[in-house]
Amino acid sequence: MRKKVNMGIASLRAYNFFYFSLLSIFISFLPVYLTFRDVTPSQIGVLIGVGSFIGILSQPFWGMVSDRYQTIKKVILFTLGFSIVAGAILFLSAPLYLLFLLVGAMYFFLLPTDPLTESLNFRIAQKHSVSFGSIRTFGAIGYATASLIIGWTIDQVGMEQLVWLFLGYGILAFLFIAIVSDAPASGKKLSWLELKQFFLYPKTLRFFLLVLLAATPHRTNDSFLGVYVQSLGGSTGDVGQAWFLAAMSEVAFFAISARILSRWSEIKLIMVASALYTIRYILCAIVPSAEWVVYLQLTQGMTFVIFYTATIQYLYKIIPEEWKATGQTVLAVLFFGISGIIGSIAGGWVFQQWGGSALYMAMGGFSLVAFGYSLFLWKSNGVGERIG
């Protein structure tokens, strides 16, 4: 039995490795690919913003499907399968008029797979008494190594070969999730009244506003880091190295995340992460070369990982058991949807009008607002206990 459990955890870790490798192609290199296709920064912003709007609709939809049918694995198989098909067509030099449809399809299928994966990781970790970070670390390793490999490979063989890397990672991710056990289902019935109470609870709303404020500059960085590095004279390989360093720092911090979370309250950790985000983006705005921006991505672990694990742990404390997959997708809607729309569209316009340095300075200012709001919530006890 113990051997079977270990094999199940190993398969889940392998799935995380290949799924987040696949996600790195979409998040890290889509803007670079669109630049290669002669799409302007403002157009990239609109394209990603529209995709993020689709994500606002799709992520809660798939989360509620998962809760309704008490399965996470089967929904992931469905969304991941369609993502592989849509992504392959997207990177096979699809005509420009199809780009909007294909990017929209990716946001409808691939992005919702992320919160479902996080929910699967968290529930299986709880069931088998292993830390969430010990599973999620492998996703960060996948993101890191794929970013480095993809950046180097594109420099060597050309952007046209990106499709084969996408297919390779996608098929392997699909094969591993197919053999992973499903997450344990809640024995409780879904209660719409409890969900309504959760969303209308003032401290919940304040928490989600904080997430939105902190996530917006983060998602702007996701959209424009590659474009900014190239605008400073960096190569596609430099873009890959930037994402590699960011993801490797995630690996380190995911490995110690359980220890950090056990010593500090979630709101304090979010406050620290927001302060570090402020410093990170202001430094990116004032450094003299692409090389500096690349190495500053080493701060990703102490910003994103601290922020993200703290928000997930807090969310799982306050949301009713039977709505956890839905709650995870609501968090993802804020993190990847609404914040993505604001960051991509506004970020693309600022980049087009005033350049990348001005954009990163604005991102630093936004993070400073998030820090101030988190400090206010901490001082006023503006977050609370479980609802329902």
CA radius of gyration is 20 Å
* Low confidence ranges: 384-388
Number of strand elements: 0
What overall geometry do the principal axes of the alpha carbons give?
Answer: globular
Reading the helices and strands in chain order gives: HHHHHHHHHHHHHHH
Q: Roughly how many Å apart are the termini? A: 35 Å
Provide the helix percentage.
over 70%
Strand content: under 5%
Largest sheet: none
Average pLDDT works out at 83
Number of helices: 15
Q: Structural class, please?
A: mainly alpha
Describe this structure in words.
Helix content is 85%, strand content 0%. It has 15 helices and no strands. The two termini are 35 Å apart. With 388 residues, it is mainly alpha-helical. The protein has helices at 2-36, 41-69, 73-90, 96-128, 132-157, 162-179, 192-200, 202-231, 236-255, 257-263, 266-286, 290-296, 300-318, 324-354, 356-380. Helix 3 (73-90) runs antiparallel to helix 6. Mean pLDDT is 83; it is low at 384-388. It is globular, with a radius of gyration of 20 Å.
List keywords for this structure.
mainly alpha; single chain; 388 residues
What is the structure about, briefly put?
The protein has 388 residues and is mainly alpha-helical. The chain has 15 helices and no strands. The chain is globular, with a radius of gyration of 20 Å.
Layout: helices, strands, pairs:
Layout (H helix, E strand, L loop, with lengths): L1 H35 L4 H29 L3 H18 L5 H33 L3 H26 L4 H18 L12 H9 L1 H30 L4 H20 L1 H7 L2 H21 L3 H7 L3 H19 L5 H31 L1 H25 L8
